[in-house]
Amino acid sequence: MKILIDMNLSPRWADFFSQNGFEAIHWSKIGLTSAPDTEIMGYAAANDYIVFTHDLDFGTMLAETGTKKPSVIQVRIADTDPKMTAIPILRLLRHYMPEIESGALITIDETKTRVRILPFH
User: Fold this and answer.
1) What is the mean pLDDT of the chain?
2) What is the pTM of this model?
3) How far apart are CA 117 and CA 121, in angstroms?
4) For 79-93, what is the mean pLDDT?
5) Structural contact between residues 54 and 9, judged by C-beta atoms closer than 8 angstroms
6) Phi, psi of 39 (to 5 degrees)
7) Contact, 104 vs 117, CB < 8 A?
8) CA–CA separation, 103 vs 112, rounded Å?
9) What is the C-alpha separation between 41 and 34, in angstroms, rounded?
10) What percentage of residues in the chain have a pLDDT greater than 70?
11) How far apart are CA 51 and CA 69, in angstroms?
12) Would the N or C end of the chain have less CB density within 10 A of its end CB?
């Protein structure tokens, strides 16, 4: 699984995911920091990445376009520091890997995880 970390999350997430067996890159390493979300989504879809973000716009784009890829993982927690939240998020990624690989929007918050299979109907 390849993970593209959005600009609104720390580049340290790329290091954490890489150390745990995933190919991961922060958007700042491959694109303009001012790039619109549509460009990030396009790159992720064309290069078989999932998007890891703290931004709700990606879920909205999936709903509007009706596409099946890329999968998006939205982290909706207050403290997005990998030191605080990385291990539980890693467990969720591994648990939902089949859904992520086939196309899903996964929203993670402090109390629950919501999985929506793509495309939305």
Assistant:
1) 95
2) 0.96
3) 10
4) 93
5) yes
6) -70, -40
7) yes
8) 20
9) 14
10) 100
11) 10
12) C
Phi and psi at residue 42, to the nearest 5° = -60, -45
pLDDT value, residue 100: 97
Query: Do 74 and 92 meet the contact criterion of CB atoms below 8 Å apart?
Result: no
Within the chain, residue ranges assigned H as helices are 12-19, 37-46, 57-65, 82-95, 97-102
Place of tokens 């890159």: 25
Q: Tell me the HSE value of 35 on the side-chain side, using a 13 A CA sphere.
A: 18
Residue 121, pLDDT above cutoff 80: no
Nearest to 31 by CA among 4, 62, 69: 4
How confident is the model over 42-51, as pLDDT tens digits? 999 999 999 9
Three-state secondary-structure class, residue 60: helix
The per-residue pLDDT for 114 is: 96
Q: Are 52 and 6 in contact (CB under 8 A)?
A: yes
- Is 83 exposed, middle or buried (CB count within 10 Å of its CB: 0-12, 13-18, 19+)? exposed
State how far the alpha carbon of 106 is from the alpha carbons of 34, 75, 116, in Å.
Answer: 25, 8, 6
Contact between 26 and 11 (Cβ < 8 Å): yes
